[in-house]
């Protein structure tokens, strides 16, 4: 009986399992739990609370049973989980993309995401040049790594994009040897920022929010001169609103709300979830 809790960050939802629980096959466990309760991934967190600030090793398993190096919304939820257990509002997260500092202010969590990179070996890309405003799968995309690979396409209206239909061609394009997450972004007609829709690798579908995707959109927007480096940019996926900053040197932060949904579920008595926010 493996216990877990569920959290979401702007509708991107996760089951969190304390790594003290031995799960022999984490991939199979995640595949089953994601299918059973409809979360976007399972975060295994190994808390090291003897350090100051406390740290946790974070490993994300996705619905396809594989891992991803980083997850922006997952990191925000993980930081809150650590803060709730330790009382510390500063948390270090050890991810496969590197160690990240997070600041927890109640439900609001900021993660220092490290430096974004357009470099072909970092994205990674098959070729040895950056992929900037090139047509892939019928869309003009720019590729950037924000902890995981992302393709960003600016469009006039994100609601007009049939994401599940058009994203897979980009997600599987041979220029991305490890695949890519796919983002569609639009200048928000009601605000200063951008609207976001994201198709996630590993979920193999659209999610209500993607933190590394929001950072990717802000990074590409800054590179293309739509926004200033260092300025706080609002990025709004269907599930809520995120704030992103990208400095001149690529260092990025991601801020937004988190929600603790359910505690004390186990794989044997799972929570049946019927949708977000209900
Ligand atoms: N939802 C996550 C991204 C998970 C990464 C994953 N889909 C991949 O790169 O395979 C986020 O908030 O950043």
Question: Any descriptors?
Answer:
alpha+beta; 2 domains; 4 helices; binds 2,6-diaminopimelic acid; lysine biosynthesis
Helix content: 10-25%
> What's the main sheet like?
18 strands, mixed
Query: What value does the Rg take, in angstroms?
Result: 18 Å
> Pairing-aware structural class of the strands and helices?
alpha+beta
Concise account of the structure shown:
With 278 residues, this protein is an alpha+beta fold. 18% of the residues lie in helices and 40% in strands.
Description of the molecule:
The radius of gyration is 18 Å and the shape is globular. The protein has an 18-stranded mixed β-sheet that branches. It is of the alpha+beta class and 278 residues long. The chain is 18% helix and 40% strand. It starts with a strand and ends in a 12-residue tail after the last strand. 2,6-diaminopimelic acid binds next to helix 2 and helix 4.
Topology overview:
Layout: E1 3-9, E2 12-18, H1 26-37, E3 41-48, E4 55-61, E5 67-68, H2 72-86, E6 90-95, E7 98-105, E8 108-115, E9 134-136, E10 139-145, E11 149-154, H3 163-171, E12 181-187, E13 194-200, E14 205-207, H4 211-223, E15 233-236, E16 242-246, E17 251-257, E18 259-266
Parallel strand pairs: 2-3, 4-6, 11-12, 13-15
Antiparallel strand pairs: 1-2, 1-18, 3-4, 4-5, 6-7, 7-8, 8-17, 9-10, 10-11, 12-13, 13-14, 15-16, 16-17
The chain binds 2,6-diaminopimelic acid.
Enzyme class: isomerase
Family: Belongs to the diaminopimelate epimerase family.
Active site: 71, 210
